Amino acid sequence: MCLGLAAFYLAVKSPVYLVVSKVLVEQDDNASSAGANLLRSLSIGGAGSKVDDEVIVMGSQELLSQMINRLKINRTYFEKKGFLKKVDHYNTSPIEIEAPDALFDTLSIAMTFKITVDEKGKTDVKVKKGMFKTLANVKDATLPVTVKTPYGIYVVDKTKFFKAGKDVSIKALVVGNVPKAESLAEEMTVKVLSKKSNGIYMDVAETNVGRGKDMLNTLMALYNERCQREKDEMAVNTGKFIDERLGLIYTELTKSEADIERYKKSHNMIDVGLQT
Fold first, then answer.
1. What share of the chain is helix, strand, coil (3-state, %, to 5)?
2. Which residues contact 207 (CB under 8 A, 6 or more apart)?
3. C-beta of residue 164 within 8 angstroms of C-beta of residue 117
4. pLDDT by residue (tens digit) across 90-111?
5. pTM score > 0.70 for this model?
6. How many angstroms from the chain centroid is the CA of residue 137?
7. CA distance 11 to 14
8. What's the order of all strands across the beta sheet hosting 188-192?
C-alpha cells in the first residue's frame, strides 16, 4: 500500500530542477577602487565588500519585482489534461490574463482564475480568493472577457496557442509583484561565489527549466541595466560638476583682471609694454 501511494505521488507531482547561474562582477579600474584593493590586502577592508553589496542588489525585492513584471510570472497557467494531469504553461498558454502593470505592483493577495472555453467558444471565468471566497463569476461570454473584481479589472483573452473548436480548461494563479518577490526570495539563492572572488552564485528551484533560466538571465539583464544607468548618471553629474567649476574659475579670472585694471587706473600705473 505504501509503495502504491509513493508511485501515485511521484506520477502526479512535477519534478523540480535546480537552475544555476554564475556572474562576474566588474570592478571599477580607478583610484578609488585601487585604494579599496590596498585596504583589502592589508585586511582593513572587508574582502569582496563590493561583491557583497551587489549580492544585496541582485537579490533585492526591487530587482525581483522588476523581473517578475517583465516575464509576467505573476501569472501562472495550468491546463488540465486527463485525470489529475496538468501542464504548466510558460509562454505557451492558450489563454492569458492581462491588466495594467501598476495593478500588479499594488496587488497584495493571490487569486485563482478558473477558465473554461467550450468548442463553440463560450467562456466561463470564475475568480476565487482562497478556497471559498468567490470574487467574480462570468458565464457564457465570448473572448476577450472583461472580469471585474474588488482587486481590479482583468481581461481574459486567447493567445496564438489557442485552437478554436477545442475545449480548454485553464487554471491561473494571479499574484502581486511584491508577494511573488517575497516568495521567490525564499526559493532563490544569491551569494558570493567564494571569499576571494568577484563572482556571484545564483540558483532557483523550478518545475519549468525554461522559466528558471529566464528568471536568472532577466535578473542579470536588469542588474546590468541598473549599473549602466548609474554609470550614465555619474557621467552626467561629473560633466555638470566640471562645467560648474570651469564657470567659477572663468568668473574668478575675469573678476581678477578687472580688479587689476581698476587698481592700475586708480594709482596712475601704466603698462611698461605700452609705454615703450
1. 45, 30, 25
2. 14, 15, 16, 17, 88
3. no
4. 999 999 999 999 999 999 999 9
5. yes
6. 32
7. 8
8. 17-24, 199-206, 188-192
